[in-house]
Design brief:
With about 475 residues, the protein is of the alpha/beta class. The chain is built from 13 helices and 14 strands.
């Protein structure tokens, strides 16, 4: 049996953008029921379909494009971010640790989609320059410094820390921005992408059914498996997991974004994503988030209002007015912006939980059976659902394989054992040096000669440390 880390999702290798499954199912292939029609449910279904599974997706509602309330997956800002994300709001160590791997897997798939002109148009995914500004030197904030340094060690394209980006755009010099860096990041037109994902999974063989699945899935497992003829159930119901997973730690963080016309008539067309993390400005729930949705719509945000279950915000709501004023103070030319007449205010409930993001098998024992449950959960992604989608789906595949063998479920780790380039007190110096050298040498292969020169001292230090350790043995 393969482990979770043996189930990567690499475009062209593990999944295909073509409208047919990479591995065709047979009549005896395992059948999976996915509960939830958002980005998590659709991407998970895609990955399973390309591995030869049969898939049925059940959802209370699907992506829509009218003036009525849209799905949370459509409301999302959908700017790919390396954790901790501006809108992600995850702070626990387990989520942040796992999210680094999850987000990079998604980055690779999105970058592959954006690289093909036809696929870029179909999927709504573009690679755009994304600039992150700070009202203090990055070195003054360990979390942001660690994040920036992590990004430099990944496959994220186009990283550059350059103070000139502060002066490049027409920003108010009085706002207080003193530091910044940029890189290329996927930006998803969620309306287009959700339509494309629905069509893609259907073309690959998924059956989409509109139905509300109420109550705790554990108590309905036998009934649902029998009625839909499935072997495994995946819960991707987002905030609905309050009921479907019996998880009373699930709660919403309400978000809102103003949509304005970005055609270059009222202000110079904005093609880059611009963001200021909350901890760099006025309060923990107030950020600057200016992101092109597509070639005509610009998103202005944002807010994070915990435990607000109602979608009753208006353009006159105090938090929305503050949000708009904050963005206009940062970029004054936005004061001339025209609202999107069809959907001026987007609001949604980001699905969080007090614990970490949950990608885990059902741990509770069924009363009527000695066998473990075959329910798998993937929820609590908060404001990072798009960024984590393919990475989480990769872990779900491994959990499906375990469930089909009726192996005992294991709880997600609550502590972190360092891997890759990370270090901790639990690593011996030998382990640290070996892992660090391996990472540094692999990184050299993809970097410029200037970068190599800057890294010589680090590599030399690591080698010397390892040699000393070897000599003492």
């Amino acid at each position: 049996m393969s482990s979770l880390k043996d189930n990567p999702v690499v475009a062209g290798k593990d999944i295909s953008f073509l409208p047919s499954p990479l591995n065709a199912p047979t009549a005896s292939s395992p059948h999976v029921l996915v509960v939830g029609g958002g980005v998590t449910g659709l991407v998970t279904s895609w990955v399973l379909l390309d591995r030869g599974y049969r898939v049925t997706i059940v959802s209370r509602e699907w992506a829509s494009h009218g003036k009525a309330q849209r799905l949370t997956s459509q409301i999302a800002g959908a700017l790919w971010e390396y954790p901790p994300a501006v809108c992600g709001h995850h702070k626990d160590a387990v989520s942040l640790h796992r999210s680094k791997r999850w987000s990079m897997m998604s980055y690779g798939v999105f970058a592959a989609a954006a690289a093909d002109p036809k696929l870029r148009e179909l999927s709504g995914v573009q690679m755009r320059r994304s600039i992150f500004y700070f009202c203090h030197p990055i070195e003054d904030d360990k979390i942001q410094l660690d994040k920036m340094q992590d990004i430099q060690r990944t496959d994220v394209q186009g990283f550059k820390r350059d103070m000139s980006v502060i002066k490049e755009l027409d920003l108010d010099p009085n706002y207080g921005v003193v530091d910044a860096y940029e890189h290329l990041a996927p930006i998803v037109d969620t309306d287009q992408a959700m339509t494309w994902l629905m069509g893609l999974v259907q073309a690959k063989g998924a059956r989409l059914l509109t139905e509300t699945i109420d109550g705790d899935l554990l108590h309905r497992e036998d009934e649902l498996r029998s009625r839909f003829g499935v072997d495994v159930i995946i819960n991707a119901s987002g905030l609905g997991s309050y009921d479907t997973a019996g998880d009373k730690t699930a709660y919403p963080i309400r978000g809102g974004l103003i949509r304005v016309i970005n055609d270059g008539k009222d202000f110079p067309k904005i093609t880059d994503a611009l963001a200021i993390p909350a901890d760099s400005i006025h309060g923990s729930d107030e950020i600057v988030f200016i992101v092109p949705r597509n070639d005509n719509i610009l998103l202005i945000g944002g807010i994070s209002e915990a435990n607000e279950w109602n979608l009753d915000l208006t353009l006159e709501s105090p938090s929305i007015k503050r949000m708009r004023a904050r963005c206009e103070a940062f970029m004054p030319e936005l004061k001339n912006a025209r609202m999107d007449p069809d959907y001026p205010l987007a609001q949604g409930l980001r699905p969080f939980r007090t614990k970490n993001v949950r990608v885990e098998r059902e741990l509770r024992q069924r009363d009527d059976s000695n066998r473990p449950s075959r329910i798998i959960h993937s929820y609590g992604h908060g404001g990072a659902g798009w960024s984590l989608s393919f990475g989480c789906a990769s872990d779900v595949v491994g959990l499906v394989e375990e469930a089909l063998q009726d192996l005992p479920p294991k709880a997600m780790a609550t502590t972190i054992r360092p891997t890759g380039v990370e270090t901790a007190a639990t690593q011996t110096p030998d382990e640290w040096a070996t892992v660090h050298i391996r990472f540094l040498l692999s990184s050299v292969l993809s970097q410029s000669s200037e970068w190599v020169g800057r890294m010589k001292m680090k590599i030399t230090s690591s080698i010397n440390m390892l040699l000393k350790i070897r000599q003492t043995k």
